Amino acid sequence: MTEIPAQAPPAGAADDADKAPTAGARSGAGGASDTGGVDGTGGGALRIVHRSPLRKFLSSSPAYMGLVLLLLVLLFSALRPEAFPTTATGRNISLDISVLLVMAVGMTYVMVAGGFDLSIGSVLVFSGVVMAKTMSALGGDGALVVVAGMAAAVLAGVAWGLVNGLCITVLKVPALITTLGTMGAALGASQLLTGGNDVTTVPDALLTITTSRPLGFSWLVYVAALVAVAGGLVLAFTRFGRHTYLVGSNEESARRAGINVGRHLVRLYAISGGLAGVAGAMSLTRFATTTISGHATDALQVITGVVLGGTSLYGGIGTVLGTVVGIFIPAVLQNGFVVTHVQPYWQQVVIGFVLIAAVYVDHLKRARRDRS
Amino acid sequence: MADPLLEARGIGKSYGHVEVLRGADFSVARGEVTALIGDNGAGKSTLVKILSGALSPDAGEIRLAGERVAFGSPEDAHGMGIETVYQDLALAPELGSAENVFAGRELLKPGILGRLGVLDRRTMRDRARRAFAEMGTDVKDIEAPVAALSGGQRQSVAICRSVLWADKVVFMDEPTAALGVRQTGKVLELIRRVADRGIAVVLISHNMPEVLQVADRVQVLRLGRRVAEFAAAGTTVEQLVGAMTGALEGNAA
Fold this sequence. Notes:
The structure holds two protein chains of two kinds.
Chain A: H1 13-18, H2 20-23, H3 26-30, H4 53-58, H5 61-79, H6 87-112, H7 120-138, H8 143-169, H9 175-194, H10 204-211, H11 219-237, H12 239-249, H13 251-256, H14 261-287, H15 298-308, H16 320-339, H17 346-369
Chain B: E1 4-15, E2 18-29, E3 33-38, H1 44-51, E4 59-64, E5 67-69, H2 74-79, E6 82-85, H3 97-101, H4 111-115, H5 121-134, H6 151-165, E7 169-173, H7 181-196, E8 200-204, H8 208-214, E9 217-222, E10 225-231, H9 237-245
Parallel strand pairs in B: 3-8, 3-9, 6-7, 7-8
Antiparallel strand pairs in B: 1-2, 1-4, 4-5, 9-10
Helix pairs in contact in B: 6-7
C-alpha cells in the first residue's frame, strides 16, 4: 500500500485562523490555485479569507436594488423638486405599501424556504370579512370590540396558512397548486359570508384609528415597520431564520441535519397566513370596507416586490431588507409618474420588464457562481 | 487488528422476498481506514445504512466499543459519535461553509438573546474555521456559498463537518466519485488525517487502486456476506476483484 504521508497541520495554523480578519492578507502569499494547487503543499496551503461584511453587502441584490431605488427618488426629485420630495409624497407612498409590505415579509419567509403562497390576497379579504363580521356580531363601539375583531382576523389568516402548510407537507400537493386552490376558496368563502356585498359598517373606534396620524404617519405605517423590523431580525439572526434558509437551500440536507422540515414549513405558511390576516385588519382599518374585489393581484404584486428585492425563486436566498426595497420600487415609480405627468399605466409596463431583468441578472450571477 | 470500535455480527436484512444481507459481519478499529467494497447489489449501502442508524436490521447485533447498541434513527447514531458523509454531500449550496458545518446544530448566544433563539455566529465561524485549519483544509472564504467552492472543497467541508461531530466512526460513501485527480488526492489525504485523529473511518468505494492507497484494511461484501478481509498492504487489485466476483476466496488477514 502506498502510504500517504499524513501531514499534521502546522501547529500555529489554528491560532492564525483565529485572527482571521487579518489573515486575509495571507491569501495572496499562499498562491496555490484553488482547484487543487500543488499537492505537495498539503496542509500548509491554508487560505482563509474573511470578506468584509460591507463588501459582501455591496455585492448583494438588496444593495443593487437599493441603488436603483435611490436613483429613482433622486430622478423624480430633480424633475419635480416642488412636488416629489415632500412629506405628502412620503406619507402616500408609505401608506400605499404598508399593507403589501406586511404580506411581503411573510412571503419572504415562505420563498426563502423554497415555497410559494398565492393565497395571501384572498386570505386578506377573508380576514377582513371575519373581522367586520366579528365586530358587528359583538356590537358596540368599544376598543375591545376592535381588538377582538383584529384577533379574529389574525386567527382566520393563521387558519388558512395551516391549511396551506398541511396540504403541502402532509398531502404533498405542490405549493403553487395548494395556494392557487386556497386563493379561490378563501375568496369564495368571503363572498359566501357576505353574500357578495362588501361589509361597510365598522365601529367608530376603528375609524378613530383610521384618522389618527401620530407624528404625521398613519398607524398602518408603524405596524408595517414593526413587522418588517421584527421579521428581518428573526430571519437574519435566529435559529428559526437559519433553518428557513437551510430548508429552502436543500430540503434533504436539512432533514438529514435533524431539522423537522415539515413542521418548519407548516409554521412558515401559518406565518404567511397570519400576516395576511394582519394585512386584512389593516386594509379594513384604512378603507372601512372589506374591499372584496380589490385584492386579486395582491399576491402577484407581493411576489414581484420580494423577487425584485433579491429573494430567489428556488429558495435559500433572500432578505427582508431586500423585500422592503423591492416593495418600495413600484410604489415610488407609480407616485413619480403621477407627479411627472407620465401616464401611471407605464408603471406596470416598466415593473414587468424590470422584474424579468432582475431575475435574468440573478440567473447570470448564479450561473457564474456555479461554473466550478 | 486492534480491538474493533464498531463491530457488526450476523446482520440480516430483507426487503420482501429479497434477502439483501445474509448474516454479514463487519468491523472497524479506531484510527484505521477500513474500506468496504463489493459489487453492485452486494449489500454495501444497506449495511452502511444499518450501521449509521438509517435502517434497522432484521437480525444480528451491533457493538460499539464493546457495548451492544441499537440505533432507532440516524440521530441516535449521531448521539453516539457516528456520522455519515453522503455521496450527494447533503450540503446547502446557498449557505456558507460554517453555516453548513453547524446546520441543525446551531449555537446560540448565551443569556437572554440565546433564549430568543439568536445565533452565536461568531463562535460558529471561529469553530468551523479552526476545524478546517486542523484538518488542513483550504476553504478560501468561509462565508462564500458552498456552491461557489470546487468539488474537492465541498467534499472537504462535508468531511470536516462529520469530523467535528463524530468522535468514533465516520462513514464515507464514494467521497471521490465526482472529483478530478488532484482533488481526489487532497480528499484522500484528508481521509487519512481523519483516521489519524483516532476516528474509525469506513470508506465505500469502487475505485480499487484508491482503496489500496488509502485504506488500512479492506473488507469485501458479496451476496450479503463478508467473504474476505485483507490488509491493504501487499494486496493487489486482482485479489480484491477476485474476492468481489467470487473468483478467488481471500483469507482473513
